[in-house]
Here is the input.
Amino acid sequence: MSGHSKWSTIKRKKGAADAKRGKIFSRLSKDITLAAKNGGGDPDMNPKLRTVLLKARAENMPLDNIDRAIKKGTGELPGVVYEEFVYEGYAPHGVAVVVEVTTDNKNRAASEVRSTFSKNGGNLGGAGAVAFMFQRNGQFIISKEKTDEETLMDVALDAGAEDLKVEEEYFEVLAPLTEFDHVSQALSQAEIEPDNSELAYLPENLTPIASAEDAKQVMRLIDALDDLDDVQNVFHNADIPAEFLDDGE
Here is the structure.
C-alpha cells in the first residue's frame, strides 16, 4: 500500500503543463547543486549526485541546466546557498504530512509552509510531531510496461533491495537507505527506468479517507504544499481510493 499514493501522484501529474515542467527542473537543479556541494561534481564518486542525475535524465532535463547546477554546487559558478529542512503537520481528517524543503531563505519557506497548512484546514506541528508514523526507505516505482516481475526481482534483490511489491499497474521496490544507490545503479545497468525513485517517508499505518469530499480537502492541502517553490517532496499517510482522486480532479 505504501506505493499507492506515489503511483496515484505520478498518474495525476502526467501531461503536466510547461509551468509544472519548470517546477520539476527547478527542484532537480536544487538537488543537483546540493549533491555536488556535499560530495563533489563527479557522479562516479558521488552516489547522491549519480542518483539525482538519473532522475534528471528521466525527466529530459536539458544538459546545460544539469551542467550549470553541478558547477554551482562545486563553486565553479556563483550561486545561492541552499539548505534542507523537514516540516511536519496534519492535513484535514487526521492525515499526517511530512514536507521536505530545499531553500535559500528559511524564514520565507517556514512562513509559506505554515500559511499553506493554515489556509487549507491543516496544522503545522513541531519537529517529531508525525515523523514517528513513517519509516525512511529507498523507494522505486516502476510501471509494469517497463519490465516483468521475475527480471525485476533478480535485479533489485541481488542489489540489496529488501522488498518487491506487485500492484495492478506497477511494481514497488523498497530498499534500506544504505542500499539505495546500489539498487539505483543496478536498475540503470539493466535499463529499467523507474517512474519515480527517492528516499521516501513511508507510512507505517494509513489513515482511511471516507468520501470524495474528504479526499478533496486532503488533496487541496497536499497540492498547495507541492506547488510551493521551496518544497521538494510531500509525503502523507492518507489512504485515498483511486475513484476519490479521480472525482477530485
User: Anything to note?
Assistant: DSSP finds nine helices and ten strands in the chain. Strands lie at 83-91, 95-103, 123-125, 134-143, 163-166, 170-175, 196-203, 207-208, 231-236, 238-239. Residues 190 and 228 are 35 Å apart (CA to CA). The longest helix spans residues 18-39.
